[in-house]
Design a protein that fits this description.
Blueprint: H1 8-41, H2 47-51, E1 54-55, E2 60-61, H3 64-95, H4 100-114, H5 117-131, H6 138-162, H7 166-174, H8 179-207, H9 211-214, H10 234-243, H11 248-280
Antiparallel strand pairs: 1-2
């Protein structure tokens, strides 16, 4: 026989308070971290800091080559990981049946998502830099980051596509559409908001990684012209400035720029998704 300690109304109020407090703490932590970085870093940020080259290993000067390197590796990671992740999700949800291969793919994706970033970096050094002969380059770094972003994009896309009501597919088949026509004209457009969220999560993880690219991208202070040139993304530059005691002021400035870039990507992407949703809903 169970004993009720609280009435349902009191339990409801307690849980509401717990959830509200949890949300407030989460928001406060986010504001505290971002606010601290911006307060410490924005005084060092200027147009000269953004568009000039570093001097004396980054002790003076700016971070323009690092911004270019960051855009390079992030773009490469996105171009490689996005179609692979979405394609794998479509296969798993629309074509594959529950068998050993599907279980192996899911297990592999979950394993990839839990591997430490430093392990990805060591693999990139061994496979991309040495075995494939790509050398220390933004291409090698981008491929390493693509491997890291892939499981996130795949898992979120798979959940999103699975959540699309079966009535969408049945209606499309009823109009005479083929399976592929149903996928790219009905299922994928309906799943775009969730897929974009997965891509954003994967790319923001990639753009913020230092350990993964440390062994693959090199540490050049020059602007990379091609994808085969070495570079130094912002997270790696921040790590070097802070750990080697080169310039704490420039380290905070670099961190502030990195945070602003991540926030800009997130805000613009969410705005585009909301606009797309309003369009397909006829608002």
């Amino acid at each position: 026989m169970s004993i009720k300690i609280w009435s349902p109304k009191i339990s409801q109020k307690i849980m509401n308070a717990v959830f509200i407090i949890s949300g407030i703490i989460t928001i406060l932590l986010l504001v505290l971290i971002i606010g601290y970085i911006l307060i410490k870093g924005l005084p060092a940020v200027s147009l000269e800091f953004i568009f000039s080259d570093p001097i004396d290993s980054g002790k003076y000067g700016g971070i323009f080559p690092m911004i270019v390197s960051t855009l390079y590796v992030t773009a490469i990671a996105g171009v490689v990981a996005t179609p692979l992740g979405i394609g794998a999700a479509v296969y798993m949800t629309e074509y594959a049946s529950e068998n050993k291969l599907v279980k192996i793919i899911r297990f592999g994706s979950e394993t990839l998502a839990s591997i430490p970033s430093i392990v990805f970096g060591l693999f990139g050094l061994t496979f991309f830099v040495l075995f494939l002969g790509l050398g220390w380059s933004v291409l090698s770094g981008g491929l390493v980051l693509a491997m890291m972003a892939l499981p996130t994009i795949f898992q979120v896309s798979e959940v999103t596509i699975t959540s699309i009501p079966s009535s969408y597919r049945e209606g499309s088949y009823g109009l005479g559409a083929t399976k592929w026509q149903t996928i790219y004209r009905v299922v994928l457009p309906a799943a775009i908001p969730g897929i974009v969220t997965g891509v954003i999560l994967g790319m923001t993880r990639a753009i913020s990684e230092a350990a993964a690219v440390m062994f693959a991208v090199g540490a050049s202070l020059s602007v990379p012209i091609s994808i085969f040139d070495p570079g130094r993304p912002l997270p790696l530059h921040l790590y070097i400035l802070a750990t080697e005691g080169i310039s704490l002021e420039n380290a905070y400035g670099t961190a502030a720029v990195l945070v602003i870039i991540v926030l800009a990507i997130t805000i613009i992407s969410n705005w585009a998704v909301d606009k797309y949703q309003n369009k397909i809903m006829g608002r």
